[in-house]
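Open question from group meeting: does this chain pack into something compact, or does most of it stay loose? Before anyone orders reagents, we agreed to write out a predicted structure and look at it together. Recording both the input and the output here so the notebook holds the full record.
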Amino acid sequence: MDIKVKWFYRLGFLLLLFVVIFVFLKLKPFWNPILHTFIAALFPFIIAAFIAFLLMPLVEKFHKNGLPRWLAVLIIYILFFGGLGFAIYKGIPVFIRQLRELSENIPNAMNQYDQIELFIEEKTKSWPFGLKQQIQNSIHSFNIGMERLVQRVLNFLLWIIDNIFLLLLIPFIAFYMLKDSEYLNKIFWQLVPKKWKNGTRRFIKNVDDSLGNYIRGQLIVCATIGTVSSTIFWFIGIKYPLLLGALIGATNVIPYFGPIIGAIPAALVASTISIKMVIYVLLAIFILQFLEGNVLSPLIVGRSLKMHPLLIIFSILIGGEVAGIMGLILAVPVVAIIKTTILQAFHVFQTQDLNDS
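C-alpha cells returned:
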C-alpha cells in the first residue's frame, strides 16, 4: 500500500476517534454515576497495585537468590508494613498533638502573618502603582492558595475517616498481588493479542525502567528529606518539628516547586519565634535542598526519566492549573508515560513504513 494512502487512513482513524470521544463526553450524565461507583470500588486495588509495583523488585531479588516466592513476599511485606505500622504507631500521637497545638496557635500565627503583610504594604507604599498592585495581587493569591490548601487537607483527613474500611483492605490486596504475581502476569499476557505482545512488553519495560525507578527513588528521597528536616527542626528548637518535617518531605515529591511550598509554613512558624529562627530554618532548608539536588537525587533517582528540566517545569505548571496539588504531584509521571507512548508509537509507525517500502 502507498505510504500516502496509509497516512490518509491514519488521519481518518484519528478523526473518527475524536468524534467518538466527543459523543462519549456528551453522554457524561449517563455514565458518570456508574464510573464514580466503579472508581470507588477500584481505588483500594489501584493503591495496592502501586504498593506491589514498588515492592516487586525486592521480592524478585529475594526470589532469584533461592527463597520461595511466598517467603520472599512475607519478609518484604512484614518489613514494609511492619515499619510503616511502627512509624504510624509512634508518629501519629505526636503528629496529632502537634497538629492540635498548631490549631490552637493559628490566631497567633495569623497575627504574625498580618503584621508581615502590613510591613510589606508599608514599605512598598511609595513604589510605582503598577509594581505595588502586582505585590498586593501576589499576596492576595497566596492567601487564597493557603486557604484552599488547608481546606483540601481537611477534606482529605475527613475522606480517610469515611473510607477507613477500604484503606484497611489495601495491605491484604497488595499481599495477594505480590504472592500471585506470576499467575496474574500469565493471565494478563493471555488477554493481550499475540501481535501486540512484543510492543506491550517493550512499552512496560520502558515505563518501568524510567518511571518505576524514578518513583521508587523519589519516595526514598522524600522520606529521607522529611526525616532529616524533622530532626533538624527538633534540634534547633522550632515548634511542630514532626509536622513541618513531614510537610517538607511530602512536598519534596514536586520537582523544583515542592521545596518552596514546604518552606513557607516552616518560615511562618519560625517567624512567630524570632527573625533568627527564620534564618536558621531557611538556611537548613536551603542546605537540605542543595544536598538533595546534588547528592541524594543523582545517587538514588539518577536521570531515569531522561526528560529535560524545561519539559518537567512546563508539565508541572500545566498539572497545577488542571488539577491543583494532585496535578503538581502527578504531572511528571503522566508526562513520562505520554512521552514513552509517543516514542513507541513513532517506532511502530517507522517500522511499518520500512517494512512496506
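Observations to bring back to the group:
DSSP finds eleven helices and no strands in the chain.
The chain has a mean pLDDT of 76.
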